[in-house]
């Protein structure tokens, strides 16, 4: 039996003094070990969902269950111990005076013994390739380095669920790749469940399953391939198709007979090669 | 107004046990009216570099020349004020710097600090609304009631209100969704063309660098690794990969195609349009040849 780690039922939320719902009637589940991506334009409600999930905001209606426990005022603290959240801007999540202290902060709070703490701090920093910065001051690091340290702080706690709220949007392409590879690794090897909130459809391609949000409501749900098949529908709601799909669609418009499914650059080159040889 | 860096070095916390050299041996030239992209891996010194452009940081050795102003480590901070007016910096997440009660007051704050009369500053604020693509009624609102994308436009208007000759953009689209990203980049390109605004773009997006810049500066470990046109810079994807950078996806596709098909694609493929054109040509050429 597959274990449902997170279940959201008919969730609705409005910000104070707003008549429009930021999140309206949203229902979904996440299974243990799964990577679910929630994608949408700015203001589509995706970040509001993240805040609702860790109890930073309280729903107007609907039920959130994490690890089979209903999220409410009594359970929120216990639930938060098992959920790690990485926010977009790393400057707002630093407490330690050195990288080492910062990663150790939450471990200390949770009463982890010192020897174990040292081991986990090193291990977590190694996973995000920031081990050589152990004694640096966080505010002297660049944006991408800070974010990797913030992720290490969460990895050290070995959470059951990691929520990435636009967490890679400030990293350079290689840094982003490293972080996503790290997360994928944790997801596959340690079965840590991942919920990534993003507007980057390249990042979406790495997920097992995707939810598309538009104006507070769920517009679509499916595998990345199914989602990318929506094509221009995604562009119309302010999202960007993966590069190879964009090129493929434009070439098709100009009469080059390519297939319709989601493609990577490699697959596109393969297809073009076949067509080229046939001529 | 040309910008010239000569042997610029910057050491943070110099003469202390925490000293850290962030820049060294930086020699660059940014021509007046050009659009220059600065790229480099996280921590390569890009942000330190850009803070030298308007004297927020002074070189610990070497010289920065902006127009007729020279900045060295000897210069007093107060003499740098005129420079701040000429060089506007749009920092990452500029909306975090909004503070006034209304959008109008926020935009007028800079010019009025430099002695522009209130009426004139307000008139300027109204013009700027159009320029950054916001409706005029936003002026009366609190900046904190706006959406993220609108706040960013207001912050950008605040920088433009100083009528700078040079605008420096540090990852100006970070955190925006794809549509917002495109709109902001197009807006800066329009400003660059219409006002001959010298534009310095610090970015992680090779696609933006390829699409907009005339000239590129590649930073690596605190110094200049290479300079050239986007076409020159993106020629050698292996060398770029070694310092942790990619080529734009269009160039990657071109290279993969060339390898697989055993041909040479003459177009530099710096934008999607160029790439689609180049691929289409490939097929029509074959047709012509067959006939």
From TrEMBL, chain A:
ABC transporter domain mapped to chain residues: 6-240
Q: What is one GO cellular-component annotation here?
A: ATP-binding cassette (ABC) transporter complex
Q: What is the membrane topology listed in the Swiss-Prot or TrEMBL record?
A: Peripheral membrane protein
Q: What is its main location?
A: membrane
Species name for this entry? Parageobacillus thermantarcticus
Gene Ontology molecular function: ATP binding; ATP hydrolysis activity; ATPase-coupled transmembrane transporter activity; cobalt ion transmembrane transporter activity
InterPro entries attached to this UniProt entry? AAA+_ATPase, ABC_transporter-like_ATP-bd, ABC_transporter-like_CS, ABC_transpr_CbiO/EcfA_su, ECF_ABC_transporter_ATP-bd, EcfA_1, P-loop_NTPase
Name this polypeptide is given:
Energy-coupling factor transport system ATP-binding protein
Domain of life where this protein originates: Bacteria
Q: What is the lineage of its organism?
A: Bacteria, Bacillati, Bacillota, Bacilli, Bacillales
Protein localization: Cell membrane
Key words of the record: ATP-binding, Cell membrane, Membrane, Nucleotide-binding, Translocase, Transport
Q: Which family does it belong to?
A: Belongs to the ABC transporter superfamily.
The record's annotation in Gene3D superfamilies points to: P-loop containing nucleotide triphosphate hydrolases (3.40.50.300)
Q: Name one Pfam family in it.
A: ABC_tran
TrEMBL record, chain B:
Q: What is the role of the protein in this entry?
A: ATP-binding (A) component of a common energy-coupling factor (ECF) ABC-transporter complex.
Where in or outside the cell it occurs: the entry states: Cell membrane
In terms of NCBIfam families, this protein maps to: ECF_ATPase_2, PRK13634.1
Q: What is its main location?
A: membrane
ABC transporter domain ranges (all copies): 6-246
Q: Which CDD domains did the record assign?
A: ABC_cobalt_CbiO_domain1 (cd03225)
Q: How does it sit in the membrane?
A: Peripheral membrane protein
Q: What is this protein called?
A: Energy-coupling factor transporter ATP-binding protein EcfA2
Is-annotated flag, keyword Transport? yes
What EC number(s) has UniProt assigned to this enzyme? 7.-.-.-
Question: One Gene Ontology cellular component annotation?
Answer: ATP-binding cassette (ABC) transporter complex
Enzyme class comes to translocase
Kindly state the subunit structure of this protein: Forms a stable energy-coupling factor (ECF) transporter complex composed of 2 membrane-embedded substrate-binding proteins (S component), 2 ATP-binding proteins (A component) and 2 transmembrane proteins (T component).
The UniProt entry's sequence similarity note says: Belongs to the ABC transporter superfamily. Energy-coupling factor EcfA family.
Keywords, A to Z? ATP-binding, Cell membrane, Membrane, Nucleotide-binding, Translocase, Transport
Which molecular function GO terms apply here?
ATP binding; ATP hydrolysis activity; ATPase-coupled transmembrane transporter activity; cobalt ion transmembrane transporter activity
Family matches, as PROSITE patterns: ABC_TRANSPORTER_1, ABC_TRANSPORTER_2
């Amino acid at each position: 039996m597959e274990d449902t780690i997170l279940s959201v039922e008919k969730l609705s939320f409005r910000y104070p003094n707003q008549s429009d719902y930021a999140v309206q009637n949203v229902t979904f589940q996440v299974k243990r070990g799964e990577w679910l991506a929630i994608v949408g334009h700015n203001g589509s409600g995706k970040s509001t969902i993240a805040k609702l999930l860790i109890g930073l905001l309280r729903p107007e209606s609907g039920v959130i269950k994490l690890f089979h426990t209903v999220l409410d005022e009594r359970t929120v603290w216990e639930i938060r111990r098992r959920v790690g959240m990485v926010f977009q801007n790393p400057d707002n999540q630093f407490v330690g005076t050195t990288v080492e202290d910062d990663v150790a902060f939450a471990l200390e709070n949770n009463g982890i013994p010192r020897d174990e703490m040292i081991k986990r701090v090193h291990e977590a920093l190694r996973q995000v390739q920031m081990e050589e910065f152990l004694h640096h001051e966080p505010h002297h690091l660049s944006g991408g380095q800070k974010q990797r340290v913030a992720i290490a702080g969460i990895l050290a706690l070995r959470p059951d669920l990691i929520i990435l709220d636009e967490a890679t949007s400030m990293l350079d392409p290689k840094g982003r790749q490293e972080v996503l590879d790290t997360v994928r690794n944790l997801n596959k090897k340690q079965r840590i469940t991942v919920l990534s909130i993003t507007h980057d459809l390249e990042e979406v391609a790495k997920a097992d399953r995707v939810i598309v949000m538009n104006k507070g409501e769920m517009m679509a749900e499916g595998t990345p391939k199914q989602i990318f098949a929506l094509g221009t529908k995604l562009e119309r709601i302010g999202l960007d198709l993966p590069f190879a799909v964009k090129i493929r669609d434009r070439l098709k418009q100009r009469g080059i007979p390519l297939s319709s499914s989601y493609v990577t650059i490699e697959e596109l080159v393969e297809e073009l090669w076949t067509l080229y040889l046939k001529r | 107004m040309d910008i010239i860096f000569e042997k610029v070095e910057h050491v943070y916390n110099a003469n202390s046990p925490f000293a850290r050299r962030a820049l060294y041996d930086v020699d660059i030239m940014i021509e007046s009216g050009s659009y220059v992209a600065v790229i480099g891996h996280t921590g390569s010194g890009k942000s330190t570099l850009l803070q030298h452009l308007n004297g927020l940081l002074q070189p610990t050795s070497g010289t920065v020349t902006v127009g007729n102003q020279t900045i060295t480590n000897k210069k007093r901070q107060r003499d740098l004020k005129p420079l701040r007016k000429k060089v506007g910096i749009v920092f990452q997440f500029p909306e975090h710097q909004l503070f006034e009660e209304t959008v109008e007051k926020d935009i007028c704050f800079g010019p009025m600090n430099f002695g522009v009369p209130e009426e004139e500053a307000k008139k300027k604020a109204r013009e700027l609304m159009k320029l950054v693509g916001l409706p005029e009624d936003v002026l009366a609102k609190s900046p904190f009631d706006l959406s993220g994308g609108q706040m960013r436009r207001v912050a950008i208007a605040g920088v433009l209100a100083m009528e700078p000759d040079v605008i420096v953009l540090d990852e100006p689209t970070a955190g925006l969704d794809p549509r917002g990203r495109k709109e902001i980049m197009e807006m800066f390109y329009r400003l660059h063309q219409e006002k001959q605004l010298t534009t310095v773009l610090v970015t992680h997006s090779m696609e933006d660098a390829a699409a907009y810049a005339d000239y590129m500066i590649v930073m690596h470990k605190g110094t200049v690794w290479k300079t050239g046109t986007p076409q020159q810079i993106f020629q050698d994807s292996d060398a770029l990969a070694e310092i942790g950078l990619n080529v734009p996806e269009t160039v990657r596709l071109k290279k993969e195609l060339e390898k697989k098909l055993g041909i040479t694609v003459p177009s530099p493929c710096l934008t999607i349009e160029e790439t689609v054109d180049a691929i289409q040509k490939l097929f029509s050429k074959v047709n012509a040849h067959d006939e």
